[in-house]
């Protein structure tokens, strides 16, 4: 009995030793948002190695998931009533990522099954948005699809089924673009090595997106003095409108 247990333990350790390790890196670990910021390209790259540090020596698919900080989002549906668009049904998502991008060496449905994709959120169809309240499954799916579509059109949610290149089964790289409207905070880049439909290794890197200069002062003022910021914004809009009206009256 003891010999049988030892045999199973040895086989388990031997199998585990064949799983690779990932050594990830990012071109920038800090992105500074200043006046005139137009977006930023991130290069996510790394190596697939054996635990001993040698070349893995077999075929692996690589999937990279870049996710921004989460926040609650209220999504409202518009309906046309008597020729006027009004708010109708709405739902709130507890923890929707402000940015979500997936790049893979092949289309996800050719790498893993739906269950594995859902566990690791390997794509927009499997993104977990956590709606608040009791909703019918169809309503949940409809609102979730609506939120994903809006974020996708704004360039904040994206997928690239051929966005990862793997060189000689050792080095991989993916390029993901952050738009100018990207939110500040900590972004996580998780890389997965997949073989025969199973995730055999994963690694996480982080990127900080920070505001600097005038943008930082405005953001802090808006957070700490919301009411005064609102009054100032209204007064500035009125003043600019008045100045524009006077200018065109004189032309």
Number of helices: 5
Gross morphology is globular
Taking strands numbered 1, 2, ... along the chain, how are they ordered across the largest sheet? Answer: 2-13-12-4-7-9
Number of strand segments: 13
Mean pLDDT: 80
Number of spatially distinct domains: 2
Specify the CATH homologous superfamily of the largest domain: Macroglobulin (MG2) domain
CATH class of the largest domain: Mainly Beta
By CATH, the architecture of the largest domain is named Sandwich
Task: Note the quaternary state here.
Answer: single chain
Provide the gyration radius in Å. 24 Å
Order of helices and strands: HEEEEEEEHEHEEEEEHH
Helix content: 25-40%
Low-confidence stretches: 1-17
Percentage of residues in DSSP E strands: 35-45%
Main beta sheet, described?
6 strands, mixed
* Measured distance between first and last alpha carbons: 99 Å
- And the CATH topology of the largest domain? Immunoglobulin-like
Structural class call reads alpha+beta
